[in-house]
Write a structure and sequence with these properties.
With 498 residues, the chain is an alpha/beta fold. It is built from 11 helices and 10 strands.
């Protein structure tokens, strides 16, 4: 055989190298992961690896009756920047980028480094966020010109429950946009939303914030009765409270967060406000919650299709659940989700984002332990819940990432000693980071602390600053959070500072 000329031989080397790399990637992707690193498998295998208790079955969403907890959740509801504006979807505000503050920016991590080291790097135009994040909540009424205060934390990603750039999102890397709740189907709103998606290619989109928030007691005059949609029979397990003009505020039960918006959208059901007595029970709430779950699935499908039309490289995560475990709401959501695949053939859950707090009912069993013991309960429940999610919906959730987009401390019942900020650091923050880096974690890839500058000293990462002035001093929690490297897997050994 006549040998190739030298030039042809040189030109063949890139093809041979490409073939070799392709072969290695194919072998890596086809090689099953070890038991220590592969995603959730059979329930029996996982239960032996993680814990001894059986997986909990889906539970109905309970009613929160604790007045102190309801007050905390109500205050937290006010931090949603987006719902405070009227209308919430406004035109993009043009700002001149402000100079960086005197804070020395940390070197930003490589955002393409995943948590699990067995992944293979493939050059695709999708942004992967490093594990450490934060919810950039600030006190209501404050407005800062930029996000320079985030430079303190060496974050891999962050969000502020919105998707517009009027608060300086693009001044700082790692921004993850959110579609907080229902997207009004008006041409102007849809056009603005499409423009937002085009401005942020390759991003993860978080869709919804607690669409299944439970009923909580609220002391205020409930709004007037909503007229049912013509042809829609109302569901009234309890009489609707219609206030008399001029009457003082009266207690009632209502939804918060996105659940409030979804319930109001279902105005034919007319039960968004419930009497305090008798306490609503799960049986009476079931048809209302099932209808809200179905409407949430429909809204998700519509938002998902818009995002993918404008940016096929985007990933869409659902649904910012208040509950970190499968509930009856989630079952109803998935029933409607599967039905919608007929109308939306490409409909998918690219990932799940949910919230996890002790004592609030967010984790259903972790409500009575002292602060030193509560995370052991949370760890076991999170592991069990992830297995339950994936085993019940393998076609939709197997190997999909789970993000915890709100984690921290909101509230402690009166039956346990009041924890300090050091207690929260040592027994909630450090153990959760340890859990993420351990073999017990089988799929939680990202974690955001709630919050940056909102709430009391046992929650916030930064000390309060004078009105309208961005904070610059870190709390005990803020110093601990800043110490973690988002570009490296968390250590499996908690190292709390004495």
């Amino acid at each position: 055989m006549t040998p190739n000329p030298p030039g042809e031989a040189r030109s063949a080397w890139p093809l041979l190298a490409l073939a070799l790399v392709s072969g290695l990637i194919t072998m890596a992707l086809s090689t099953p992961n070890s038991d220590a690193t592969r995603e959730a498998g059979a329930a029996g295998d996982m239960s032996r690896l993680l814990f001894n208790s059986p997986i909990q079955t889906p539970r109905p969403i309970s009613v929160i009756t604790d007045e102190a907890l309801a007050r905390v959740l109500g205050e937290r509801d006010q931090m949603r920047r987006r719902a405070m504006s009227t209308p919430p979807w406004t035109a993009t505000v043009t700002r001149t980028p402000s100079p960086r503050s005197s804070v020395t920016p940390r070197t930003q991590p490589n955002a393409d480094i995943p948590l699990d080291s067995h992944y293979v790097f493939v050059p695709i135009p999708v942004r992967h966020n490093a594990w450490k994040g934060a919810g950039n909540a600030i006190d209501p009424g404050l407005a800062w010109p930029d996000t320079n205060h985030l430079d303190h934390f060496n974050l891999g990603w962050w969000y502020d429950w919105g998707d517009n750039d009027s608060y300086g999102e693009y001044d700082h890397p790692g921004f993850v946009p959110m579609e907080w709740c229902r997207l009004p189907p008006t041409p102007a709103v849809i056009a603005t939303f499409r423009a937002r998606v085009q401005e942020m290619p390759g991003h993860v989109w978080l869709v919804f914030n607690e669409p299944e928030h439970p009923l909580v007691p609220i002391t205020a005059t409930p709004p007037a009765t909503v007229t049912p949609t013509p042809g829609t029979p109302p569901v009234t397990p309890y009489p609707t409270r219609t206030p008399t003009p001029g009457t003082p505020p009266a207690p009632y039960r209502g939804f918060l967060q996105c659940a409030e918006t979804i319930c109001a959208d279902l105005n034919g059901f007319n039960v968004c406000q419930w009497p305090v007595t008798p306490t609503p029970n799960p049986t009476a709430m079931a048809p209302v919650m099932a209808a809200m779950a179905a409407r949430t699935a429909e809204e998700y499908a519509r938002i998902y299709s818009i995002i993918k039309e404008e940016d096929p490289t985007a990933r869409v995560f659902c649904c910012g659940q208040y509950h970190a475990y499968p509930t009856s709401w989630w079952v109803a959501f998935m029933v409607r989700f599967e039905q919608l695949k007929t109308s939306y053939p490409s409909l998918s859950l690219d990932g799940i984002h949910l919230h996890a707090y002790p004592y609030t009912g967010s984790t259903q069993l972790c409500n009575t332990q002292i602060i030193q013991d509560v995370f052991t309960c949370m760890k076991n429940e999170l592991a069990a819940s992830l297995v339950s999610f994936r085993n019940n919906y393998p076609d939709d959730l197997d190997n999909k990432p789970f993000w915890i987009t709100e984690y921290g401390f909101l509230y402690a019942p009166a039956t346990i000693p009041t924890p300090t900020d050091a207690d929260i650091r040592n027994w909630l923050m450090a153990p959760m980071v340890s859990f993420l880096g351990s073999a017990e974690n089988r799929g939680f890839t990202n974690l955001a602390w709630f919050s940056v500058a909102y709430g009391d000293y046992r929650t916030r990462l930064m000390e309060p600053a004078p009105s309208q002035t961005p904070p610059s001093t870190l709390t005990v929690l803020g110093n601990q959070w800043a110490s973690y490297n988002p570009a490296q897997p968390p250590t499996p050994t908690p190292t709390p500072t004495p």
